[in-house]
Design goal:
- The complex is a heterodimer.
- By secondary structure, chain A is mainly alpha-helical.
- Chain A contains eleven helices and no strands.
- Chain B has two domains: 32 residues; 210 residues, MetI-like (MetI-like fold, Orthogonal Bundle).
- Classes of the chains: A mainly alpha, B mainly alpha.
- Chain B: It holds the Pfam family BPD_transp_1.
- Chain B: It is found in: Cell membrane.
Chain lengths: 273, 265
């Protein structure tokens, strides 16, 4: 950086460039921050408050062998999945219903704009009086993800090519045929994006339900180990929660690619290794 | 001249009618349907509105709402500062980006609310904890979007700036401005997250604040008061989103104008 103050080209890394070099640097960064965390915690913190990584990692490995971790993860994922399914179904149906009727879209849009930024967790105190905590958590996931899916569907519907619609009309495709052959393929990439976005939201809310209301799952496990003072166990659980998040994110990306294997962006991505 | 004014007025009224129509209908429907409600969980809307006035337009506002707003503002501002600063470094220098990418990828997917128990143990119950939690929850979308935006700045612009030997400060300003649409996208996402984290952190550990007060009403079965708190939280979320939109529209006026892009709804 001394001879020229210009940025290096975005793809060129220090370690010779290429994906291998970049991965190596990533590993170095990971090791450096792990070492930094270890040093800082050992020097400044009591292990009761902030345990060092050398204590957290073995604990995390032990947790991986325990069935209670897997049941909790399974429950959290199940709640997230059910909520997600409801959100996608409701979002697609409502999105198509509103989006394909212009006057409906015009009248509803201000209400949708009003309701969307309302944080779904405000429902907790209301629903706690009538439903059980797992149902509420499913509902929280569903409501939060619903907005994302709905708005992606609406964006997608706006993107439908008028020429394609007219062509479909000319060859006398009915309303249903137009939806299947023109509208749906246009909306699908937007749904793929929605899928990628909602997965982490679903996980976050499934865990929030456990933290706030004690709905069985990872959130509840984390909160109870905090309350019983097992701070190392709690840190290990948080570490593993992040790993679950990464796994989900990967799964969502894979699903998106599967779903959109025919789409230009995906094909281009696959063609350039 | 007059004709266009009248036409404009008519268009304005129609737009207003379209925007307000359904909300008014829904509100009136709620009001009428709940008017004779005897279900203690679903009190009449008139009672909720009444409770709203009694609860929130009193010293509770100073005691509970203001601290919440202060925490939200401080935590969010800290997240903006750190997010844009670090995001700039990450986006501008490939080495920094390569070094940090696995860690950033991890924190991007780690749900923000799990940081609450962590900080509870690490820092303890207090204002500082809530501030840090809000900031930590909000910082990732800002950081990642800033990094992406800075990285995608047009090379020709950078070369031009270099050829003209613009000063460093001018050049940094140029890059930030070019990245600002994306920074705003991250900041908008972060605003929603910070509001959620604020409420959750107050529900879990607080002696004051909006989230705490709403939960307290619910536990003491003060149902109309609780509903009024839910209403206030909803209004707060909506108000903040609108305020953000206003600022974004002002700051990014050049962007929409220059590209002719339709504004996202």
């Amino acid at each position: 950086m001394t001879t020229s103050s210009r940025t290096p080209a975005p793809t060129r890394g220090l370690a010779g460039g290429g994906p291998a070099g970049r991965r190596l640097l990533g590993a170095v960064g990971l090791l450096l921050s792990a070492a930094g965390y270890e040093a800082v915690t050992r020097a400044f913190f009591s292990p009761l408050h902030v345990p060092p990584l050398s204590a957290i990692l073995p604990q995390a490995l032990r947790l991986l062998a325990e069935p209670r971790f897997w049941t909790a993860t399974g429950r959290t994922l199940l709640v997230a999945a059910i909520g997600l399914l409801i959100a996608v179904l409701a979002g697609v149906v409502v999105g198509f219903a509103i989006g394909s009727v212009p006057w409906l879209l015009r009248t509803a849009s201000s209400t949708l704009d009003f309701l969307r930024p309302v944080p779904s967790i405000v429902l907790i105190p209301v629903l706690v009086l009538v439903l059980d905590v797992t149902q509420i958590t499913v509902l929280l996931v569903a409501v939060s993800c619903f907005w994302i899916v709905l708005f992606q569907v609406l964006y997608g519907l706006r993107d439908v090519d008028q020429v394609a619609v007219d062509t479909a009309r000319t060859i006398r495709l009915g309303r249903w045929g137009r939806i299947v052959h023109v509208t749906w393929p246009t909306v699908l990439p937007y749904l793929g994006t929605a899928l990628r976005l909602v997965v982490s939201v679903a996980l976050a809310l499934a865990i929030t339900g456990g933290l706030v209301m004690g709905a069985a799952g990872l959130g509840e496990l984390i909160w109870s180990s905090q309350e019983s003072g097992e701070s190392t166990g709690m840190y290990a659980l948080v570490l593993l929660t992040g790993a679950v998040g990464i796994a989900l994110d990967l799964a969502a990306r894979l699903a998106e690619r599967r779903l959109l294997h025919w789409h230009v962006a995906t094909r281009r991505e696959l063609a350039t290794p | 001249m007059r004709a266009t004014v009248i036409a404009g007025l008519a268009r304005g009224t129609r737009a207003a009618a379209l925007a307000l129509g359904l909300p008014v209908v829904l509100f009136v429907a709620w009001w009428l349907l709940s008017a004779n409600s005897t279900n203690i969980f679903l009190p009449p809307l008139s009672r909720i509105v009444e409770a709203f006035g009694q609860v929130w337009l009193s010293d509770v506002f100073l005691r509970d709402v203001l601290p919440s707003l202060r925490r939200l503002a401080t935590g969010y501002a800290a997240a903006l500062l750190v997010g844009v600063g670090v995001g700039y470094l990450v986006g501008r220098w490939a080495v920094v980006r390569d070094l940090t990418s696995p860690i950033l990828a991890y924190f991007r997917v780690l749900p923000a609310p799990v940081l609450i128990p962590v900080l509870l143990v690490a820092v303890g119950i207090g204002d500082a904890t809530k501030l840090i939690v809000i900031a930590l929850g909000a910082v990732w979308p800002i950081l990642l979007n800033t990094a992406d935006g800075v990285r995608a700045v047009d090379d020709v612009q950078l070369d031009t700036a270099a050829v003209y030997r613009l000063r460093h400060r001018t050049r940094h300003g140029l890059i930030l401005r070019a990245a600002s649409p994306q920074i705003f996208a991250g900041a908008r996402q972060a605003l929603g997250i910070s509001l959620i984290v604020m409420v959750v952190s107050e529900m879990l550990m607080s002696t004051d604040g909006l989230g705490f007060t709403v939960i307290r009403f619910q536990r003491t079965f003060a149902i109309p008061q609780m509903w009024s708190g839910v209403l206030l939280l909803g209004l707060l979320g909506f108000g903040l989103a609108k305020l953000f939109e206003l600022i974004e529209r002002r700051v990014l006026r050049w962007h929409r104008g220059a590209t002719g892009r339709e504004e996202p709804r």
